[in-house]
Amino acid sequence: MFIEKAEVLISSPGRNFVTLRITTDDGVTGLGDATLNGRELAVAAYLREHVVPLLIGRDAHRIEDTWQYLYKGAYWRRGPVTMASIAAVDTALWDIKAKAAGLPLYQLLGGRSRDGLLVYGHASGAELPELFDSINEHLEEGYRAIRVQTGIPGLPSVYGVASSANARTGSDAGTDARYDYEPARRNAVPVEESWDTRAYLRHIPGVFEAVRNEFGPELPLLHDGHHRMTPMQAAKLGKSLEPYDLFWLEDVTPAENQEALRLVRQHTTTPLAIGEVFNTIWDYKTLIEEQLIDYVRSPVTHAGGITGLRRIFDYASIYQIKSGAHGPTDVSPVGLSAAIHLGLAIPNFGIQEYMRHAPATHEVFRTTFTFANGMLDAADAPGLGVEYDDEAAAAHPYEAAYLPVNRLLDGSMHDW
Ligand SMILES: [Mg+2]
């Protein structure tokens, strides 16, 4: 079975997506997600100019060899653009192999290890009443684990909070969606936000105290620090949140400096999740070997596909570290489906992030996965169980959109 065609498909049904579709000489097609939020066209060009020409004529069954060929063969290793491109090829080839076998992909990865994937949703509110409404809304929709983000007094717009009109200029603008936070805004340049870490550290423990008092001790609660703290600030936050028994505290520091997590770890028993901006197993080496985190955050889409991410999860499993894959709406339904199949199969699944895609997205990406009782599950359709509708996609051309940038109150650039 040889690769006859590989197409880079760019569409924007609610938000921008880059998709790779590979077709074999006997007409089997496979899809891979190559979406890199705010840098979409760089991955599209990498694929079109430097990867697609190398794929034509290759044996579609040789997934591992193709992965190594694109990783080692480029000489220039790692990085989000390269690894999203490799991920798209890898995922599309797994989709093809599973379709050729007539099996849902998870069967080729070892079969089911569980009934479904526990997911968490994003609740947010500028103030507590809105936050409580948002949590209740998620519980009514079946969510059994909730990420909590709130506004910070004195800051006009804060990461993860959707309830201000300011934050709702993305895919849900003009709709009645109240709380679906969409950080990427359609604009020629990124929106600028401002940040004050001390104000944040003062405010957040009281928010979690109020949420626990309102919703009780059982509901798993998560929180994302979005890379904004120093190691000492992160240690302080982790410690101050211990009474509220978080499921995890995410991205407390910019974790390129993996050794910094030693200090955080020494000071708090709050579980830590890191890695949504990481791309390879090398980015986790110290974090995993020294057991400095509890959950690995990389998604299939940005970490070299099923092949790359499975290797990271297996490595993590020997240290009792679990999966907690990134799953915002900029991971396309193709990337999400890949996450579901991989999550069903691995022994060390933890939780899956799940923000539901907009209806327009589902008109382009025809999915078969299900969400019920707070769990995602794959259907029995062969492959990934997603088809791409070219006609529907044609109505949604690419439009520049960027994640915001972040400045401290004195104007200095800070981590967003
Ligand atoms: Mg995050």
UniProtKB/TrEMBL annotation:
Keywords: Lyase. SMART domains: MR_MLE. It is an enzyme of class 4 (lyase). SUPFAM superfamilies: Enolase C-terminal domain-like, Enolase N-terminal domain-like. Residues 129-271 form the Mandelate racemase/muconate lactonizing enzyme C-terminal domain. Gene3D superfamilies: Enolase-like C-terminal domain, Enolase-like, N-terminal domain. Transmembrane segments: none annotated. One of its GO terms (molecular function) is mannonate dehydratase activity. The keyword Lyase applies. It comes from the Bacteria. This is D-mannonate dehydratase ManD.
